[in-house]
Amino acid sequence: MKEEIFNTTPADYEGTNSDTYGSITSTSTTDSSGVATSIYTAGVKAGFIEFWWEERSVKKAKRGSFFLLWPFGKERWGKEKLKLRVYVGEIPEGYEPPLRLSDVKNYIKDSFDFVVSKNRFEWVDTQFTNCNENEFNVLNTYRAGFGLGEVGFYEGRERCLVNYVKIVELYYDRYSERAGRTAAHEMGHSISGHHENCIMIPNPTDLPSNCQHFCNECQNKWWSKNLGGE
Question: For 38, 109, 115, 226, which has the most beta carbons within 10 A of its beta carbon?
Fold first, then answer.
């Protein structure tokens, strides 16, 4: 089975150093006992690993029979698993209802279903001063210039901004969902720009199709922050 995979499936990556697929120490030579040692460090993407090596003057690399299948995509060895930690500031006075803070938070959390399902999501009650890579503040903003489409702005993990007032002024329904998806979208700008078929789609506040969750590519980027796994 593995030979069929190796013979018919093009490699995703070939080399000795990649954050995604892992790395191996530089070429080593044998010692006085005829033993050479190299160390492989796992990356963050799951799959088969095929080791090749050269033998003396043989120019064509020889194929080894050793392969591994481990869930590298879900965790980094030797590091403590983290939670996605989120602080959400208060909604401006007079806008709850039609906006409800609890509903906004539920839609943010739902957007990260792949993290929630692994119990790697946590609300915090105190705003972060300096955010680590797994920590975010979702805050209200009154900044001008917002129109239909994306009523939010990313100013770093400390300031994922949503203009709640504009959402109520510009739209006529689903206020909390629009706010929650927009907040998750702005958090997503820490790993990605706009693209289709994902919550990172342009104009998330309009709630276009496929704007509820992160695509597989984005999920892998979130996992690379060591947000855990099994």
Answer: 115
Contact 133, 157 (CB under 8 A): yes
Q: Is 182 helix (H, G, I), strand (E, B) or coil?
A: helix
Cis omega (within 30 of 0) for bond into 97: yes
Coil vs helix vs strand at 145: coil
Lowest mean pLDDT among 25-29, 91-95, 145-149, 225-229: 25-29
Segment among 18-27, 140-149, 176-185 with least mean pLDDT: 18-27
Closest CA to 219 of 77, 46, 48: 46
Work out whether the CA dihedral 206, 207, 210, 216 comes out positive or negative. positive
Which of 63-67, 143-147, 204-208 ranks highest by mean pLDDT?
204-208
Can you tell me which residue has the tokens 């692994």?
Answer: 118
**Is the pLDDT score of 152 beyond 60?**
yes
